[in-house]
Structure formats: C-alpha cells, structure tokens
Amino acid sequence: NALIEENKENYELLFHFLALAYDSQSIQLVRENLESETAEGIGFAIELLDLFVAEEIKPLLFPIFEDTTPLEKIKILQNHFPIKLQDTEELINSIINRDPNFINRWTRVCAIQLTRTIENYKVNNGMLAHLFNSDKLIRETAGIAVKNIDDSAFSITCKRMDSDHKQQIDEAYLYADDNKYKLLYEKNNFLKKLKQFKNVPDRNLTKLADFIKFNIIEKTDNLLSRYTEDTIEYLFLIKGKVIIESGTYSKTYNNSVFVNEIHTLLPFSEIKLKITEDSLFYSITKDDFDFILFSNPELAKIMMQEISLEEEFA
Predict the structure, then answer these.
(1) How does pLDDT run across 193-243, given as a tens digit for each residue?
(2) DSSP string of the chain?
(3) Residues 6+ apart with CB under 8 A from 299
(4) Helix axes 58-65, 70-77, angle to 10 degrees
(5) Dist. CA 275–CA 253, nearest whole Å
(6) What span, in angstroms and rounded, lies between the C-alpha atoms of 251 and 261?
(7) What percent of the chain has pLDDT over 70?
(8) Around Cβ 279, how many Cβ atoms within 10 Å?
(9) Which of 299, 281, 293, 92 is nearest to 187 (CA)?
(10) Has residue 313 got a pLDDT over 50?
(11) How confident is the model over 113-122, as pLDDT tens digits?
C-alpha cells in the first residue's frame, strides 16, 4: 500500500510538471480521461497528448499512461532507463537507502519494518546509518529492527549514538501489549485506519502522528471536566468505550475512532464525555493540531471535507 501511495504521489507530481509546461486545462482534460480507467478514455488522453507535447518526451511519457501492466511499462522504459532486476532483499534495501528527495518517509519505514520478516536478513551499513537519522520515526523503526535482527551489530553501533537516542530505542524495543501504541509506527498505522484520514497521503499523516501522545485514561463520569473550552484536546480512542452526551444527544464510541464531536457540539459546558471502562487514547493539543493543518493545506482540506460529511449525515 505504501508503494501504491508513492506511485500516486509520483503521478501527481508528473501532472504538476505537465501543467507548468503546457496548457493546464488541456492537461486537466488528459488527466480526467486517464483516470476514467477505460480503454477509450486512456486512448483519447494519449491522442490528445500527442497533439501538443514535445516529440522528445513522447517515448518517455506515453508508456507511463498507456493501458498496460506495470511490468510491460518497465520493459518499454528499460530502453531509456536501464535498471537491474533485484531480489526481494535487494529491493527492500534499495528502498531503505533511497534518496529522501525521491521517497517519502512512510515508504522507507515500511521497508525497514519488512526486514524483520526476511529470513536471514543481513543488516548492512545503510540500515545501521538510520540509527543516526534525525527523523525519529525512521530512527526508532530502524533501531527496533536492527536490535531484533542483529543485537550484536546494534550494540557495536550504539556506542557512537547519542545517549538520548539510544535510550529511546531501548525503551521502544521493550514496549509490549498496550505500550506498543507509543511507537510512531503504530501511531501511523492507527491513523491510517480512521475513516477521516482514508484519503490523506502518507507523507501528511506521518506529520500528524509526530504530535499525538499516548494516554491510558481510567473510567470517569466526565473526562471533559479536566479541560476548559480553550484547553480541550483532540482525542482518538484506540481501545475502550466512551459515551458523549449533550442535552438529549447521546452517542457511544468504541475502538479506533476520532472523537471529533466534542469540538462541534455547543455549548461546551453542557457536553459530557463518559469513559465507561479504562481506555487507551491518543491526544493532540488544539494548538498542535491547528499548526499541522496550517502547515499542510492538503490535510486541512481533506479533514474539513470528511468532518462536514459526518455532520451532514449525522
């Protein structure tokens, strides 16, 4: 799925470049026909491109859009961009070590995570280098993987690591049961399951995961009594059961949901959030959430659309 998402982003970038080089309305028409995923639509899109794109890029561009399998596309493009066929381990390593300008962090993390499933996987220098990565998500995932696969290599390498980073990985490696939800990898996986984020690109979702915090909240009659209208956080229920009440309105939430209604029901003073059993939550402050949305307009747009739909059909 991460590679599929990566391909979508690459197509998006390609259309942006085409729209800069040629008439944007024509490119939009091409795109709409390609996305119809019909033989007629794809054929018309390529015929349209043939009318105005430069001759020298046609052999590079058309195979990407033609109605063929990925393998057939690769065979045709091999004439222009020769690549070496790789086995599974080599392919995983090439993704792990790819230039960050050409791959998003979630795809790299998924590849690192996969190394734990490869029998007799050999930890290489590229993998060990990620123990020093400034990106906590990559560093944490790589550290756990290396420690799991080759503890000796981890022990030797960690002598050169920052003490705080080593402690972070040591603690993360020992997380078990409910504590696994403290891991950034698990935070991302959780967010990807929520319906509000189903259309959010991985690169944006990982930025949100960087800010959410794990909480175990005991049974209480009204969790919101701990907050004011200005300090209320955004809450994501991982496991447990909660009931939100406001006047005659009542709704029960179970596992894996974004409890967003506490921000849409008014007045705040009349809202109750009952925790009916000890529950696991992720939370993010309103300031942090607003910062993420402000920094990622695409995420903000999708979030507003999803929340508006929920309110419309509530």
Answers:
(1) 988 888 788 888 899 999 999 999 999 988 888 888 888 888 999 999 999
(2) -HHHHHHHHHHHHHHHHHHHHS-HHHHHHHHHHHTTTSHHHHHHHHHHHHHHS-GGGHHHHHHHHSS--HHHHHHHHTTTS------HHHHHHHHHTS-GGGS-HHHHHHHHHHGGGSTTPPP-HHHHHGGG-S-HHHHHHHHHHHHHH-HHHHHHHGGGS-HHHHHHHHHHHH--GGGGGGSHHHHHHHHHHSGGGTTS-HHHHHHHHTT-EEEEE--BS-GGGG--TTTPPEEEEEES-EEEEETTEEEEE-SSEEEGGGGTSS-GGGEEEEE-S-EEEEEE-HHHHHHHHHH-HHHHHHHHHHHHHHHHH-
(3) 200, 204, 205, 207, 208, 292, 293
(4) 170
(5) 10
(6) 10
(7) 96
(8) 23
(9) 281
(10) no
(11) 999 999 999 9
β partners of residue 281 = 215, 237
The closest alpha carbon to 285, from 217, 226, 216, 211, belongs to 211
Do residues 214 and 181 make contact, with C-beta atoms less than 8 angstroms apart? yes
Return the pLDDT at 200. Answer: 83
What is the C-alpha to C-alpha distance for residues 127 and 95, in angstroms, rounded to an integer?
11
